[in-house]
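input
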Amino acid sequence: MTLLLAPRFDHLLAMTDDFGTFEHACFAEPRPEHGYCTDDMARVLVVASREREPSPAVQWLIRLALQFLQSAQATDGAYRNRMDAAGEWTDQPTVEDCWGRSIWGLGTAARSELTGVRESALAQFERAVQRRSPWPRAMAFAAVGAAEVLDVIPDHQAARCLLADYAGTANQPETEPDWPWPEPRLRYANAVLAEARIVAGRALGQPVLLQHGLRMLEWLIEDQTAAGHLSPSPVAGRGLGDMRPAYDQQPIEVSSLADACARAMDVNPREIWSNGLKAAVAWFEGDNDIGQPMWDPASGGGFDGLHADGVNANQGAESTLALLSTLQHAQRLMLTAQ
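output
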């Protein structure tokens, strides 16, 4: 099966109403009773803001995501993550992943040329980056967002300060000689830990940190490759000596790897990064541990999980956004090669 290279927003739009994008689906049908989450709306903002010539529908997604994140943000910069189907928040603000992903989304939207979008994104960004998180992935997502802001506003002091604080915590020693990773187990969205080091090292002029991120990413690509295709760590994570392949595998692992490979291509000319991105696209096409496509050609949605005996054919927001994000990077790779 051939995957359409151009990202299709049909299913994401079908999953979205005037509050936000529903978190879960039963096959291609949204499940409103499960509500919405800030994690997903931050991803919506990232993916929609990346579009070079956003359609009116994608422009609507950008503005809706900004509105959602503004509602989620507390006055001290922390974020709520859970909204029910009636539009009511059901949790308290934190600086967990939803905080870091929101900063990532806002930093990406700061590149926008749409009227009012950059201004709104930066206002929310500046409130959010007053905070710091003790969670490595939350800080990594935030670092990626801060680097996006510095790309368009090089003298943005709050963004630079957050990156500097991140860099000060990012040089943890490897846990084992045979395990060159800063955690004893791979967990989730692993490649963002490498990507954040790459962007922080580049933005701050710290080549040691940049090279550390590239080495981490190279090891992760090699670790997550088996029999010529991607075999990502499962939802339960993976440690040294765990059996492989393992299930269930999540699209977020593949899209995170694609994000990091695309970032590495900007700073390092080695072919391993473009090959890693191509392998991520191929995983969705069916070049994976069970040889099954991880997307629905009828809806354009991404499937929720890869199991030993088949796929989870539900098409939730996270999985669909992972597919769209990976395709955006692949489209950019194709355009660059022309």
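quick obs: The chain has a mean pLDDT of 95.
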